[in-house]
Amino acid sequence: MIIAIDGPAASGKGTLAKRLADHLGFACLDTGLLYRAVARDLARAGFRLEDIWAAVAAARTLHPQELEDPDLRGTAAGDAASIVARIPEVRAALLAYQRDFSRRPPGAVLDGRDIGTAVCPHADVKIFVTAAPEVRAQRRFAEFQARGAGVAYETVLSDIIARDARDSGRANAPMAVAADAMLLDTSNLSIEAAFDAAVGLITRKTGR
Ligand code: CDP
């Protein structure tokens, strides 16, 4: 079974995907980390984010095992990720890994921007997680504060708004709600309540 969780920046889809995967005993892939890691590898090799062919080379040589890097979670990494994520050849280079992952038995949860529309159009369940930009910024700001990262709330909010515009405005696999996706607005939901609501949606769709 494949569960696709998409949504804008800091919508809580990562936390939700992990909770659902634990609950169902499924594998879980945060696909945003792949794009974040491509941008990191590119910078480490001394290239600019706009260097298309260096970005494609970084995507082709990415080791998806090397995603446990705290630096990948920062705001600069998210911004850099959305720049390399516009490059069609970068997306193509990351596609096979994501599709292979989605077929892991007994099931997989993948979260990102284009899982329900491009990576796994035949996913059994598609959930598009949203929340008001101010709510998302507040949650991400609290996350950064807990990690001791000194970023202002206003910076987090403007980054989120700019990144959403870039992600939904790009030509290739833009962030979009799949026609058969179920919407989950978590603006007024705790993590626990969002999890319960998502489990309800999955049960309604699959009977599990
Ligand atoms: O955690 P957050 O929602 O802030 O971001 P993320 O899911 O880690 O994604 C970082 C960036 O990678 C996004 O802004 C997108 O540009 C890109 N991305 C993408 O293009 N396609 C995906 N399936 C996942 C992420």
Plain-language structure description:
- Helix 1 crosses helix 9, helix 2 (32-44) packs across helix 4 and helix 7 (133-146) crosses helix 8.
- The chain has 208 residues and is an alpha/beta fold.
- A five-stranded parallel sheet has the order 2-3-1-4-5, with helices on both faces.
- It is globular and about 50 Å long.
- The protein has helices at 13-24, 32-44, 52-60, 75-84, 88-102, 115-119, 133-146, 153-169, 191-206; strands at 2-6, 27-30, 108-112, 125-130, 182-185.
- The model has no long low-confidence stretch (mean pLDDT 95).
- It is built from nine helices and five strands.
Structure summarized in a few sentences:
The protein has 208 residues and is of the alpha/beta class. It has helices at residues 13-24, 32-44, 52-60, 75-84, 88-102, 115-119, 133-146, 153-169, 191-206, and strands at 2-6, 27-30, 108-112, 125-130, 182-185.
Mean pLDDT: 95
Encode the helix/strand succession as letters: EHEHHHHEHEHHEH
Percent range for β-strand residues:
5-15%
Radius of gyration over all CA atoms, rounded: 16 Å
Which kinds of small molecule does this entry bind, naming each only once? cytidine-5'-diphosphate
The number of helices is 9
Helix and strand composition category: alpha/beta
Largest sheet: spatial strand order: 2-3-1-4-5
Helical amount among residues, as a percent range?
Answer: 40-55%
Shape label: globular
The biggest sheet, with number of strands, parallel, antiparallel or mixed sense and barrel status, is: 5 strands, parallel
What distance lies between the first and last C-alpha atoms, to the nearest angstrom?
11 Å
What ranges have pLDDT less than 50 throughout 5 or more consecutive residues? none
The count of strands amounts to 5
